[in-house]
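pasting for the record
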Amino acid sequence: MHPNLDPELRAAVEREPPATANLSGATHEDLLALRARRSADLAAAAPQVGQGVRVEDVVVPGPGGDLRLRVYRPAAQDGPLPGVYWIHGGGMVLGSPEADDARAGSYVRRVGCVVVSVDYRLAPEHPHPAPVEDCYAGLAWTAAHAADLGVDAGRLAVGGVSAGGGLAAGTALLARDRGGPELVFQLLLCPMLDDREVTPSGRSFEDAVTWNRGSNRFGWSALLGDAAGGEDVPVHAAPARAADLSGLPPAYVDVGELEVFRDECAEYALRLARAGVPVEFHLWPGAFHGFDTVVPGATLSRRARAERVAALTRALIEGLTRPGPALRI
């Protein structure tokens, strides 16, 4: 328990300690067992999408074979809506679109959009570039079939959380470097951006409520193998390594004060602003990684969700991709 931990979050964690994914020193068998437990928990849980949202899984061609996309639409949709291409978290080694059903359903209802979530291949079975290439292929398919999905191709954003936030940043870089699809916004929630452990927060948090330094090292090693932390890691794998961030879509970046990703996210936001990219940045005080999911009813969690919805609404509905100063803290 860090002394700066938000009191409401602290009380909730003390009352009911969360099931964390501590992968420090884990074996591949440990990872498989954790995946199986999470899959069983999801299958046993009540539906999380919420009322007024219909869900459809589609299978499209991907670089490694069939690629599943999970599409969330308003139950009563009239005409094309803006689209959010979503990438789930899980440290590059865990997760599925279903884990973000509640988040996707909330964006559909509260923003008034279509969400398309990609079931990308996971490391270590599928190291870089498989995850980000899957994400890019799904984005390209979504843009090409926007009319069929009820999406306005001129209002398409990319977003993700944790590892998914890092993959969203990498996908935005790929879209820029390959000449499309055109994106109007990127929503990067506590993104996993840097494999090098060069920031103070990246070298801290050996103990953490959810995602600690050892787990982070495990995730990067699974994705990059022996190359992790070295000189030859591609920027689309670790976007913090990109020397040129110009020409990227406007961004919203947020992160908790008490997590490994804090400094790399703050520096990425600053570098986006310096490159002329409109960016809004939030550092959530006293917050650990994934706080809004672990303690959804906390005041800070509600604030974070409201700010993200407001940012998406400004970008996709109101068309205001530059809400204020180049950097808001």
